[in-house]
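Work Package 4 report. The design task specified in the project plan requires that, given a folded chain encoded as structure tokens, an amino acid be chosen for each position. We show below one input record used in the internal validation round.
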């Protein structure tokens, strides 16, 4: 849909929602149904930041509603202040709890994270029951009545929840448009890859969890005042969490509008089930059925399902790549280094998987400014060594030095910030992003200001376009990366890694599965980037290409370097021939 049409519809709906209480101020029931839908929407929108954008599904997210509610409840009775005054503080307390808890629970993902978030909700419920000195235990806390005329009881709450919903939505839209938002989507799609292109995944996830808690905490304070009574079972209620998740899933997890639309659908359906379906127990049945239907028939949610029905611009499926542009394109802005000595040193590195020694005492040095090859039979440990160099391969022994500093032990994104880039054997582009978004997503360095900067804007977008032209794919910038051919994706991944301003690029089988025309293009691109000062380490099975492109060549067999030297020497090395023929070198 045209974004302008979408914004127009949103403005009309918003205006209608503002007018509802003015048209019939006495319609208390309708106002209550709507304000509770706003409350679910605030939570679904917030949940979407950690679970939709970043892909970490929190099934106990209403814990922050309870934390916000209890913060306001406890402090308003002690300090004798209105709970509304404490609402921002409730949001801050939710953020602090999210940061503390997140630093532990975000170390796991998938089902383990889901279970921990449910446990968290139950943990806070138990705490609320068992800390009677603070929370008044199971008896709960009674708050003061609203200070305004009981005649208009719901109307101020209605506008407060509506306002909070609009603010939470604006916040989520803003996040999605920043580099932080793109980084979260990258983490959702492929966390390992995101880390390898310099996105500090741990920080991003923690910030996303904190960001997803703020408005829920604020809403909790307002909700406590609305209810004027709090108890552990009500405040930390798993059913509220399920409603929130169901809303976002139904509407479209990861989209901007999906959680809002879904929250309204689920809230109204829940109310209808309660009124017409024989009481609140029928809600459980309805939620269970809805969850099954969504998972089976609309896993991406309503909005993405509707979007798929809209007519689409045909995608040009072709393996053709444009000519590399003749205008000089600056692949790197780093000056050519005049230092001497190896850029990368691997010293006696060992990595075992159980009893299998995938890398078995490998040592090698990559000269600055070279295009070095690392070849070897299948299973000889080349990719494993790449993983160890870039920090995604887990624990190992031995040392890895980059530009005179030891880097083993550093996080993958820190290594990327130092100038270490890599591509993968099977391309790992973020397939739901456009080609241009993919190329701008790497972070060559990190500072807090990066978080708020626009995802695809300014100088960076220009540079990304230049790099796409450099690999001959400029005209595909607005296509979804997943729609390109495999060989084209390999070239996009190369443009993406060049965006890091790397000093050393590790290429894992750049010619694997690529047609011969593209192989030549790949070699041209590597040579051109190398002339501008970028060092390459290439793993490749296309031996003619390697021997033509690289010098020196290292040969790995059974995790050890069995030969190294210029291509002509390697070509005639008996041990290398033996290794490739499958015999044990003597
Ligand atoms: N995560 C893992 N768990 C267990 N074994 C692994 C793992 N990763 C790699 N291996 C094993 O380690 C050995 C080296 O694998 P690696 O992928 O590094 O080889 P390679 O030289 O890159 O092979 P290819 O040329 O086929 O890509 C293989 O025997 C492989 O099965």
């Amino acid at each position: 849909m045209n974004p302008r049409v979408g914004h127009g519809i949103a403005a009309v709906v918003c205006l209608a929602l503002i007018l509802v209480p003015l048209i019939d101020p006495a319609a208390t029931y309708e106002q209550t149904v709507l304000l509770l839908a706003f409350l679910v929407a605030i939570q679904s929108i917030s949940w979407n930041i950690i679970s939709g954008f970043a892909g970490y599904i929190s099934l106990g997210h209403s814990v922050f509603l309870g934390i916000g509610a209890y913060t306001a409840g406890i402090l308003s009775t002690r300090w004798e202040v209105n709970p509304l005054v404490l609402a921002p503080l409730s949001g801050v307390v939710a953020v602090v709890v999210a940061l503390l808890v997140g630093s532990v629970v975000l170390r796991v993902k998938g089902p383990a994270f889901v279970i921990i978030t449910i446990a968290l909700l139950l943990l806070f419920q138990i705490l609320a029951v068992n800390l009677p000195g603070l929370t008044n235990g199971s008896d709960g806390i009674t708050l003061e009545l609203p200070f305004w005329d009981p005649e208009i009881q719901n109307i101020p709450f209605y506008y407060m929840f509506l306002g909070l919903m609009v603010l939470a939505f604006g916040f989520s839209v803003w996040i999605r448009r920043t580099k932080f938002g793109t980084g979260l989507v990258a983490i959702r799609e492929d966390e390992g890859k995101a880390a390898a292109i310099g996105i500090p995944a741990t920080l991003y996830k923690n910030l996303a969890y904190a960001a997803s808690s703020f408005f829920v905490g604020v809403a909790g304070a307002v909700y406590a005042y609305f209810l004027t009574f709090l108890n552990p079972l009500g405040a930390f209620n798993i059913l509220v969490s399920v409603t929130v998740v169901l809303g976002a899933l139904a509407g479209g997890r990861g989209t901007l509008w999906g959680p809002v639309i879904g929250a309204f659908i689920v809230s109204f359906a829940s109310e209808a089930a309660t009124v017409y379906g024989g009481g609140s127990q029928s809600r459980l049945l309805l939620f269970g059925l809805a969850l099954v239907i969504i998972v089976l028939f609309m896993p991406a949610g309503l909005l993405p399902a509707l979007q798929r029905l809209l007519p689409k611009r045909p995608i040009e499926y072709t393996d053709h790549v444009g000519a590399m542009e003749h205008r000089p394109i600056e692949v790197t802005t780093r000056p050519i280094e005049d230092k001497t000595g190896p850029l990368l040193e691997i010293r006696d590195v060992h990595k075992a998987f159980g009893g299998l020694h995938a890398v078995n005492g490998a040592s090698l040095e990559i000269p600055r400014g070279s295009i070095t090859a690392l070849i070897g039979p299948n299973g000889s440990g080349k990719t494993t060594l790449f993983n160890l160099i870039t920090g995604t391969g887990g624990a190992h022994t031995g040392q890895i030095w980059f530009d005179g500093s030891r880097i083993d032990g550093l996080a993958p994104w820190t290594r990327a910030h130092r100038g270490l880039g890599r591509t993968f054997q099977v391309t790992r582009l973020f397939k739901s992003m456009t080609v241009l978004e993919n190329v701008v997503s790497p972070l060559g360095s990190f500072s807090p200001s990066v978080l708020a900067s626009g995802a695809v804007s300014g100088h960076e977008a220009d540079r990304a376009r230049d790099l796409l032209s450099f690999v001959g794919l400029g005209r595909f910038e607005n296509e979804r990366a997943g729609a390109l051919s495999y060989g084209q994706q390999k070239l996009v991944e190369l443009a993406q890694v060049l965006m890091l301003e790397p000093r050393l690029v590790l290429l894992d089988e750049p010619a694997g599965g690529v047609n011969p025309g593209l192989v030549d293009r790949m070699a041209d691109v590597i040579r051109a980037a190398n002339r501008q000062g970028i060092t390459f380490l290439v793993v490749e099975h296309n031996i003619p290409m390697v021997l033509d492109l690289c010098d020196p060549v290292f040969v790995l067999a059974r995790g050890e370097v069995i030969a190294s030297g210029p291509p002509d020497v390697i070509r005639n090395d008996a041990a290398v021939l033996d290794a490739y023929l499958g015999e044990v070198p003597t």
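The CA atoms of residues 105 and 113 lie 7 Å apart. Validation will be extended to a larger panel in the next phase.
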